[in-house]
Design a protein that fits this description.
Bound molecules: cobalamin, iron/sulfur cluster
Strand content: 5-15%
Number of domains: 2
Distance between the termini: 58 Å
Oligomer: single chain
Number of helices: 16
Shape: elongated
């Protein structure tokens, strides 16, 4: 790479930081080097009912099957941790919500930042650029792109952990139609002899290091899964309403990091202002109002009611849970009905 090229790449990476990412890197748009991992994961059925993961596997393994023009991926990471660090001290529903979902819809926030980065890149590279701003929902292997861009390494909990930091961070990907030389090497795994995440998972969702069976993962069960949850999983899910952070909470790399204080991911008042009791008594319009602009919308009101019944039992709110369960036994959603039956069959002295 010539000195001029190196300067251009450096300016592009700085532009990404100005657009709102704390770390940035570049990965070539080549076929996945870990396609066998995705294949094995899908073959085991570990994606559960996320049929879209299987449907789009070919594109995930080689993104140029869809974005034929893409040559490089600019990858940015954005930390989302907000105060308080100890979630049991968070107000209202927040203490039952995974930290990535405390603030505004991150897809919108990050896509806007990627579009800003694209505009800056056009100025730096001169002339129009063809780009695509991807966050979470597109058929790309974002963690692998981030690994190959050198902005982090993959822990045994499968999360991307920042080079000098933690895993409390989103990934954003900007595909561009220019060949750009990556300037950082992929980082090797730094777990050492630790296996805290594997041992701490409440539902035993890891089949082994780097092997997560989504069908047992609380994040999947509370966000992606529609319908009934198996009673033995409800027994183990804890007081999570949406998502789960346990395998990140126990990670030593996450221990010392402070809140990111990114205003875009500051806790939404709608979630902080109500608690599980209120949620159990709420109607769907109220739930929609409280979750406006929030990632919690993905679980739909019925999913949140189902999750609230389970979380309330684990939080020790037995009377409220039983009262709500009796009312919801005939709910139109199968998941809510199954959770209501489970609540009424649950011992009232469940260990917390
Ligand atoms: C499906 C999905 C889920 C599923 C399945 C998760 C999983 N581990 O596969 C569920 C619903 C369970 C989930 C949960 C969460 N998710 Co999610 N999810 C995704 C999604 C859409 C696809 C992930 C995927 O392809 N899985 C299939 C497996 C096979 O791929 P993989 O784990 O990514 O592994 C790849 C590479 O990392 C590599 N690899 C795997 N292991 C190893 C090991 C070594 C040593 C090496 C070198 C490489 C390597 O091989 C694989 C193929 O390339 C991505 C967005 C995207 N488009 O990529 C977000 C994404 C992974 N999720 C994200 C988040 C924030 C979460 C949660 C933290 C949310 C929460 N708190 O509840 C949890 C974390 C749970 C966990 N431990 O993974 C972030 C992760 C950011 C980060 N720092 O890692 C992403 C990237 C979204 C984003 N844009 O920020 N998620
Ligand atoms: S997010 Fe929770 S349930 Fe899922 S693997 Fe991590 S600790 Fe287990
Ligand atoms: S908890 Fe330990 S094993 Fe798991 S990702 Fe963190 S360092 Fe690796």
């Amino acid at each position: 790479m010539s000195l001029a090229d190196r300067t251009l790449v450096e300016r592009l990476l700085v532009a990404g930081r100005r657009a709102g990412f704390v770390d940035t890197g570049i990965a070539p748009c080549e076929p996945s080097r870990f396609a066998d991992r995705l294949d094995a994961w899908l073959a085991r059925g570990a994606h559960g009912s996320m049929a879209w993961m299987a449907r789009t596997a070919d594109v995930r393994k080689d993104l140029r099957r869809k974005w034929t023009w893409a040559r490089s991926a600019l990858v940015g990471v954005a930390p989302y941790l907000a105060a308080p660090r100890d979630r049991t001290r968070a107000p209202g529903l927040l203490r039952h919500v995974a930290r990535y979902a405390w603030g505004r819809e991150y897809h919108d926030v990050l896509r806007a930042r990627l579009r800003d980065w694209a505009a800056r890149a056009e100025q730096i590279l001169g002339g129009p650029l063809r780009t695509a701003a991807l966050v979470d929902t597109s058929a790309v292997l974002e963690r692998e792109l981030a690994l190959r861009a050198g902005v982090g390494w993959i822990g045994r909990n499968t999360c991307l952990i920042g080079e000098r930091g933690d895993s409390w961070r989103f990934i954003g990907v900007l595909l561009v139609d220019r060949e750009l030389a990556p300037e950082r090497e992929p980082l090797a795994e730094r777990c050492g002899s630790c296996r805290a995440c594997l041992d701490a998972c409440p539902t035993d969702a890891f089949d082994g290091p780097f092997e997560l069976d989504a069908r047992r993962c609380i994040s999947y069960l509370t966000i992606e899964h529609r319908g009934a949850i198996a009673p033995e999983l409800m027994d183990a899910m804890g007081d999570w309403l949406f998502g789960c952070d346990v395998c990140q909470e126990v990670c030593p790399w996450n221990r010392r990091v402070g809140p990111a204080d990114d205003p875009a991911f500051a806790p939404l008042p709608g979630l902080a202002g109500v608690d599980l009791r209120a949620l159990l008594a709420a109607d769907e319009d109220e739930i929609r109002a409280w979750t406006r602009g929030s990632p919690l919308r993905r679980a739909r009101p019925a999913g949140l009611l189902r999750n609230a019944l389970i979380a309330a039992v684990h939080a020790g709110l037995h009377d409220d849970a039983r009262r709500a369960a009796r009312r919801l036994l005939d709910h139109e959603d199968e998941g809510v009905r199954a959770a209501a039956q489970w609540v009424l069959a649950s011992p009232t002295q469940r260990r917390r």
